[in-house]
Here is the input.
Amino acid sequence: MYGIEVTLPKASGGTSDPVFAEVQRRVYALNYRIKEYEQKIAEVQNRIPFVEGDREVEVLHRLLNGDSMRAIGKHMKLSSTTIFRVRNNILKQMMK
Here is the structure.
């Protein structure tokens, strides 16, 4: 306007957004956990053919669907102790 030019000093350093940095950290951590779960699921899927017996297969599928031991026992008219025993048999068969 009057021939005087004003210059502001340049900022030093980079931009800092702590919220963005936290979101990035959490996304990275969640992606890592998801990758771990995918590996575990793939391992279980590879071992499903090792499970023998109708009772074991039924309990395994219900466990994979997220049913509780109590709910499985109620549906199959078995005690929860028996369901725990069947689950242990499934694990032994899968570990062969």
Remarks:
- The mean pLDDT is 89.
